[in-house]
Design a protein that fits this description.
Helix content is about 40%, strand content about 15%. The protein is α+β, with helices and mostly antiparallel strands. Strands 3-4-5-6-7-8 form a six-stranded antiparallel sheet. The protein has a two-stranded antiparallel sheet with strand order 1-2. About 35% of the residues are buried.
Length: about 200
């Protein structure tokens, strides 16, 4: 795992530790990763992430969103109904072949996915989300790279720690998003402009 990605994972782990939230990272074995590379064309940087810090039981918690990562062992199965056909499950006609589901909103069930048609020289690509339950899927940029996605999640968790665990009203939610926005801008201005986090 390269130093930028390792630092982003470490920052996310620190955010979990500060919030006293239990998570479990592991290491996916090489055979599993190779299977995913062949079946889904998972890019190099995400394979490196799974190899070193497989998100076995990882869910970020903020007042407005909970992002649950899909561990390597379940990634292939989770594509069923999106890009993969299985008995009793047709693929989603609006889902593109170059999208790989890697996490879900634990609140709404919306997918978080890599778009491997936009690979960069480091073998990384942007992450998007889309609202489910509609006739079409309109992707919204969440982060320009995996490293930036992890940093945004860590930052959102840090900001959330100042809001306590009470139920938030609309004003609290707006304040949370307004507090988060300038911090996201320093990480990934394109993600801020896309508006998913704010």
């Amino acid at each position: 795992m390269d130093s930028d990605l390792a630092e982003a994972v470490s920052t996310l782990q620190t955010a979990f530790d500060q919030r006293k939230l239990q998570v479990r990272f592991g290491k996916a074995d090489a055979e599993e990763i190779e299977k995913l590379r062949k079946a889904l064309r998972i890019p190099a940087r995400f394979r490196s992430f799974l190899s070193e810090r497989d998100p076995v039981d990882v869910e970020t918690v903020t007042p407005v969103e909970r992002v649950r990562f899909i561990p390597a062992a379940k990634l292939l199965d989770e594509q069923v109904g999106y890009s993969i056909t299985a008995e009793g499950a047709e693929p989603n006609a609006a889902w593109r072949k170059n999208w790989i589901l890697v996490a879900r909103s634990a609140l709404l069930g919306d997918p978080y996915f890599l778009d491997i048609s936009k690979l960069d020289a480091e073998g990384d690509c942007p992450l998007f989300t889309a609202m489910t339950g509609t006739d079409s899927l309109k992707p919204t940029l969440c982060a320009s790279s995996l490293q930036q996605f992890l940093r945004i999640l860590a930052t959102a968790m840090e900001v959330a720690s100042g809001f306590g665990e009470a139920v938030m009203d609309d004003d609290d939610e707006r304040t949370f998003r307004e507090t988060l926005a300038p911090r996201i801008k320093t990480i990934d201005s394109a993600a801020l402009r896309a508006g998913h986090w704010t």
